[in-house]
Amino acid sequence: MLTSLRYLAGTAGPSGFGSRTTAEEATAAAGDLGHVTAIITGATSGIGAETARVLAKRGARLVLPARSLKAAEEARARLVGECPGAVVVVLPLDLSSLASVRRFVQRFLGLGIPLNLLINNAGKYADRFAVSEDGVEMTFATNYLGHFLLTRLLLEKMAETARETGVEGRIVNVSSTIHSWFSGEDAVAYLDRVTRRKIPYDPTRAYALSKLANVLHTRALAERLREMNANVTANCVHPGIVRTRLIRDRDGLITNTVFFLASKLLKTIPQAAATTCYVAVHPAVAGVSGKYFADCNEASPSRLGASGDEASRLWTFSDAITAEKVQKTSVVRATAGGFQLHQVQC
Ligand SMILES: NC(=O)c1ccc[n+]([C@@H]2O[C@H](COP(=O)([O-])OP(=O)(O)OC[C@H]3O[C@@H](n4cnc5c(N)ncnc54)[C@H](OP(=O)(O)O)[C@@H]3O)[C@@H](O)[C@H]2O)c1
């Protein structure tokens, strides 16, 4: 109740920011970001586009991966139009394809530039059931698995940049409060059943699972970074609820009415990009890792999201399913004792 009132009033939390803070306000204390190179996924629209705009305005060099190069070029033109002199590199990436993630990383590493910031923002809410080319339910494949592999393949580069420059690297995973809607079931077992159509596809549950995976990924990643002794942190955020192209599958009168009725609860896009930007560059977040943020303040994830066991189980599973040797025709099945990869007939 108190949390809802604070949200509606936009009351500042311990960080000095609250639900009404914009990305520009949240980054003012970071100063000039001319020394920072950032990869931002999903920067062609919505929250990612605003995150890119604000970081470019503060001087950061941006790499924008996108599945549509035309959309990415348009985003680049908008950024350079508003911030003349901005350095923005566009590269192809379809996060739902592990092969595309590998090609992107190869191209990025080929540029020979540093990497200080990785913002895993891209996401989708899919009304219709689909399976990725790697044999995984599409929402999970796009929102989580692609980002898992992307991050894993870029970790060494980020650690190296931080070592050479003395500047802390940061990874920000964009999750959602909806991650807490997934509970009471083993995540991988559910993924297995839904992928093999053993249970009906529920778009909201699939989305919630993918966002829970973002939270668990953050926790396990922070642990891994500590073990590596890397000067790189990993945190995740709930941006707040805002109307973007995320629910494009549901555009129509009912959605318009719901958004109209809920308008007082919604954020604007500049407000929705604030928490990502705050966690990415604000000096107060230095050294903080493995945490969940909302409205530019540390918050609590769901009980499942806070589970170390669940985080390490998901890490093991993700490592196995993204391993290069896994065939296109493999799917992962959950077993009582863990996970198994099985070949399937196509
Ligand atoms: N909007 C909200 O209320 C809300 C609430 C909580 C969390 N979030 C999270 O915030 C993040 C940003 O969402 P948004 O609301 O800004 O939505 P959006 O406007 O639809 O932006 C999503 C971005 O992700 C990209 N994307 C989708 N599938 C991709 C793929 N396979 N490969 C590469 N890029 C892909 C989209 O590119 P295309 O142009 O190619 O489609 C677009 O740039 C998401 O992770 C979402 O889950 C949003």
UniProtKB/TrEMBL annotation:
PANTHER family: OS06G0129100 PROTEIN (PTHR24320:SF270), RETINOL DEHYDROGENASE (PTHR24320). This is Short-chain dehydrogenase TIC 32, chloroplastic. Belongs to the short-chain dehydrogenases/reductases (SDR) family. InterPro entries: NAD(P)-bd_dom_sf, SDR_fam. The lineage of its organism: Eukaryota, Viridiplantae, Streptophyta, Embryophyta, Tracheophyta. The keyword Ligase does not apply. Transmembrane segments: none annotated. Keywords: Oxidoreductase. One of its GO terms (molecular function) is oxidoreductase activity. It comes from Eleusine coracana subsp. coracana.
